[in-house]
């Protein structure tokens, strides 16, 4: 796996393209806007998404998907969850035969309740075994600054997971493999919602006990959903579960946490959206699709429900806190 296309030149697409290029791969990055592609190829910068980061000399970018996909042995999908279906549909005819499709997106599709690998297999019309997922504590800016991190490459076909692992491993990026795609994707999608809750709590002025309680009970409701959908429970103790949850809930670099903080301080959804400058905070939409998925499978997800109501039903963040604490008392493992 030498020639790789990365489709999406936002923060994570650009940082992951850098990871692959630093690992010695021949990478072409697709950017929606030609001026972003020109800046990456010409100046080795993507100032809109990764200010101050110098990109590898070998990294090329284009706004033409035909050029990005030509000869690719793996195709990395780095666009937001809710646009992935439409983006991929426009690229489907260009995908090389038998290629491994790698999803970086952390969300659940609105309306269908599908995980991103399900959307990818459906739209690209390929077997699930051709779709891999990369998930873990991977804040793009830290990785772009070459700070050490680990991640998980999930694929039902172990050989394909190993190929992506080998293609991306470098001196600051350590990928592990796993076959539990369901658990990895749920971990990645649900932690964004829990990070919104932690941000809301921080915005309300609450400290570390509240954060730790939300992280732990957030993991409990994620694991309950995972059990209902057939995930391996141990995945939630790993990098794509607890690892990503802790990084996202604790970091001021997280868009989801920052978005929640604004809501907790009393900003409206529209104000918080404006402050995000077009960058995606996936949990804002996925709180609804995850809540629906939980309801469909009879899974109680009180934190997710609270976040959804603060984001979309105008629930006062203080009332969310009061409601969570006022729930019926129960045993921890119930
Ligand atoms: N930024 C991070 O630290 C990490 C992000 N992720 C996930 O990776 C996925 C992509 O995230 P980022 O690159 O951070 O997002 P971003 O908001 O920084 O960039 C999104 C990219 O998708 C492109 N795009 C293509 N079609 C689009 C459309 N129709 N609407 C909006 N944007 C469109 C945008 O032009 C932009 O280049 C998300 O699911 C995110 O949760 C996962 C791990 C780390
Ligand atoms: O997924 C991430 C870290 O692993 C990035 O989180 P945010 O999208 O909240 O910035």
UniProtKB/TrEMBL annotation:
Residue ranges annotated for the Glycerol-3-phosphate dehydrogenase NAD-dependent N-terminal domain, each copy included: 4-160
The organism's place on the tree of life at top rank: Bacteria
E.C. code: 1.1.1.94
Active site, per annotation: 191 (proton acceptor)
Keyword NAD carried by entry: yes
Residues the record lists as binding NADPH: 11-12, 32-33, 49, 106, 140, 255, 280, 282
Name used for this protein in its record: Glycerol-3-phosphate dehydrogenase [NAD(P)+]
